[in-house]
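STRUCTURE:
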């Protein structure tokens, strides 16, 4: 890894030259991030120039730079978005994909119609970029496109689209609920988890039942715990206690912290009422 103080002593031109050499290497994004950090007119003009280059690799790097100039400050926002939208019509799919991802970083609402047109692109990387470009967008066109991509043949794209529908927007419609419910049948546990969190967030009437089933799986994941915490249902407390009793010293600390949050949210007020129907009172002993 290149030290930051070394990078800061190198000119923008030299960094771009290094990025061209390292395009498929581990250091590539280190160079790009330094250009993002600088975010001055020099970097913008250099990136703009690259987007007009005859070499697709240069245009791709130009898009990568334009995506996050100034990081959270989103410097040169309008100019960059205009250029990136035009680049969605580039003949090279790698350039299109980089431009779509860049527009996602820019959170560009005006790019939604142009991104939506690419949802059926033959290249997986382009469709992947489209999903990212639409994350957080709440227009009907953006949502309908994500719903379509949540059924994509590529697992990774279905995963990101489900994430986008489930937790990155607040819109709640029957179509969104139906799309999320369909993903509960996925083999991929992470996709099921993203769908479950989205349904819990929207208080689907069956969300507690589905979460209870998920928590009973052999290796429940953090997303299942997040769904339980969101629902805050005492009906899930016994399932969470059961998971708690399987925890061993040295297990994933983040998982344990999420489990504790879910337990706190779901713990019945006034404590547990013990009755004859409870076969194992020890299950509810104080942790």
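SEQUENCE:
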């Amino acid at each position: 890894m290149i030290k930051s103080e070394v990078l800061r002593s190198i000119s923008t031109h030299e960094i771009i030259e290094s990025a061209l050499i390292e395009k498929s290497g581990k250091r590539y994004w280190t160079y790009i991030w330094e250009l993002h950090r600088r975010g001055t007119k020099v970097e913008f003009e250099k990136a703009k120039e690259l987007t007009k280059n005859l070499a697709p690799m240069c245009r791709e790097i130009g898009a990568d730079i334009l995506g996050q100039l100034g990081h959270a400050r989103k410097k040169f926002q309008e100019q960059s978005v205009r250029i990136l939208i035009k680049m969605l019509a580039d003949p090279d799919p790698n350039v299109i994909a980089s431009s779509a991802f860049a527009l996602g970083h820019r959170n560009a609402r005006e790019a939604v119609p142009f991104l939506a047109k690419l949802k059926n692109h033959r290249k997986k990387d382009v469709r992947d970029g489209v999903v990212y470009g639409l994350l957080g967008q709440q227009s009907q066109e953006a949502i309908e496109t994500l719903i379509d991509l949540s059924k994509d043949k590529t697992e990774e794209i279905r995963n990101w689209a489900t994430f986008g529908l489930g937790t990155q927007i607040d819109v709640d419609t029957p179509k969104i609920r139906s799309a999320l419910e369909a993903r509960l049948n996925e083999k991929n546990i992470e996709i099921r988890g993203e769908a479950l969190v989205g349904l819990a967030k929207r208080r689907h009437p069956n969300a507690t039942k589905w979460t209870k089933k998920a928590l009973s799986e052999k290796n429940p994941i953090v997303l299942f715990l997040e769904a339980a915490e969101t629902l805050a249902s005492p009906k899930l407390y016994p399932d969470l206690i059961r998971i708690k009793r399987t925890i061993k010293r040295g297990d994933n600390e983040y998982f344990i912290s999420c489990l504790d949050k879910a337990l706190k949210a779901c713990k019945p007020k006034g404590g547990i009422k013990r009755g004859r129907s409870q076969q194992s009172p020890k299950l509810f002993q104080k942790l």
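REMARK: The radius of gyration is 23 Å.
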